[in-house]
Amino acid sequence: MSSIEVLDAVLSRSEVEDALYRWNLEEPDYIDGRLHRLYRLAKSVLAWAYMLPESVEKRGGWGPGVSSLMVGGGTVGEGLSRIAEEEGVFSVAMTIALLGKGQERFFEIVRSEGQRRGLPVGAFHTPGSAGGMDLSVNLDLGKGLPLDKLGISVLPDGQLSPSYSWIGVVPIGEGTDRVTFLCRGCPFHESCPLRRE
């Protein structure tokens, strides 16, 4: 069973400032107009579903005690993805900040579900971005989500279309602290603009 949520595609002032800081950008002229244009194009959606750990193959396994996986996916849509690809770094920074809102909302849902079930939740992982989770894992994870309703497709090599989309997974259950791939294993850990530590 899966659920879909439409997200508010607007960044707060502090989220804009945080994105500018992370990307080492100065506030551009006419920022309100530029942001409004991006918000008009954004189609922020989010979906989530449960999957069994054995249905998602990954190098190293999920570890003992992981009883389920909560899988999520989201996108800002084709229009905003195209703008982010064609225009400068400001559009990229704000588009990634909008994607981050979807990921944060997904983790809120996972955390509350873990509390409801009385189970610990692990870290949020996205295939291809850290550790031993290959991009091809998106092919397995995507099977659990209503990607057609989200407007996302998984390409044969595991990449997503539109390009500014994500699929992520959070393990649930005892032993989630022993899942072996984490951001600190990623070669881009020190310079990642999404880093929250």
How would you characterize the overall build of this protein?
- There is one protein chain.
- The chain has six helices and six strands; from the N terminus they run E-H-H-E-E-H-H-H-H-E-E-E.
- The protein is α+β, with helices and mostly antiparallel strands and 197 residues long.
- Helix 3 (78-86) packs across helix 4.
- It is globular and about 55 Å long.
- This is Vitamin B12 dependent methionine synthase.
- It comes from Dethiosulfovibrio marinus.
Can you give keywords for this protein?
197 residues; alpha+beta; four-stranded antiparallel sheet; 35% helix; 16% strand
Counted by DSSP, the helix tally is 6
- In N-to-C order, the SSE pattern is EHHEEHHHHEEE
Mean pLDDT: 84
Q: Outline the biggest β-sheet.
A: 4 strands, antiparallel
Class computed from helices, strands and strand pairing: alpha+beta
Strand content: 15-25%
Largest sheet: spatial strand order = 1-2-3-6
**Spatial extent as radius of gyration:** 17 Å
Helix content: 25-40%
What low-confidence regions span 5 or more consecutive residues with pLDDT below 50? Answer: none
Distance between the termini: 33 Å
Query: What is the general shape?
Result: globular
Tell me the total number of β-strands. 6
Protein name: Vitamin B12 dependent methionine synthase
Organism: Dethiosulfovibrio marinus
Write the layout of secondary structure elements.
Layout (H helix, E strand, L loop, with lengths): L1 E5 L6 H10 L8 H11 L3 E7 L16 E8 L2 H9 L2 H29 L19 H6 L4 H4 L2 E2 L5 E2 L3 E8 L25
